[in-house]
Amino acid sequence: MKRTNLLIITLAGFSLCGCSPGSDENVQDAVSRLTVRAAGAEITTKSSTVPASEPVVFTGNDILWYNETTGELRFINNFTQNDDMRPYLYGSRFKFYLEDEYLFSSVIYSSSLDSRIHNNLVFYYDIIENKFYLAVGYPPIEAFHNTPEIQAEMQAERDANRKKIETEWNRFIEQMKREGRYRNSRKESVST
To answer: What's the rounded mean pLDDT across residues 69-96?
Structure first.
């Protein structure tokens, strides 16, 4: 009889462990509030409404994590194999929304084969590493063999462009954290 009581108490204890309301809730199972839309090649401005002509390219639910240190944006599925994303990868701009609220200016898509220099927010795919990045500027300044003065000038322009969207960027980062999709170290970007 004592063993039966001990077994019942033990099982009840296991079933109650971790059952505090919301404490073990997996945030990534929730529907993401983030939406990314293709805006075409034109320059876009902030708007209070989402144009119907902007098709959804991906949502926060498609994101496994974003690493702010490396800029890597890891998707749950490899979008390079996804026909839904492929039409928007060249020549389009991406607009990030939090629900229906527009966050930052158009994000230019660029691939690692693109030789153009961008000093604003860039969404690009590195074909060699098979990775996506959301970073301020492309290519990395370290890739230039220019003088330190030119590199400093380019970095200043990138910093100024990032400052223009600082409030919206911080909201994006906070949303990634709330959804459990945020990382911030070099070591974390290696794992999936």
So the answer is: 74
Cα separation, 167 vs 101, in Å, equals 13
Largest CA distance in the chain: 83
> Beta-carbon neighbour count of residue 136 at 10 Å?
19
Strand order in 63-67's β-sheet? 56-59, 34-38, 93-98, 101-111, 118-126, 131-138, 72-75, 63-67, 182-183
Full-model pTM: 0.72
Say if residues 44 and 106 touch (Cβ distance below 8 Å): yes
Give the chain's mean pLDDT: 75
Q: Which residues contact 73 (CB under 8 A, 6 or more apart)?
A: 63, 66, 67, 123, 132, 133, 134
CB-based contacts of 163, cutoff 8 Å, min separation 6: none
Query: C-alpha distances in angstroms, 62 versus 36, 57, 83?
Result: 10, 10, 14
Do the beta carbons of residue 123 and residue 112 sit within 8 Å? no
Rounded to whole angstroms, how far apart are CA atoms 98 and 39?
Answer: 16
Contact 95, 36 (CB under 8 A): yes
What's residue 21's pLDDT? 37
Q: Supply φ then ψ for residue 39, to 5 degrees.
A: -110, 0
Whole-angstrom distance, CA of residue 150 vs CA of residue 141: 10
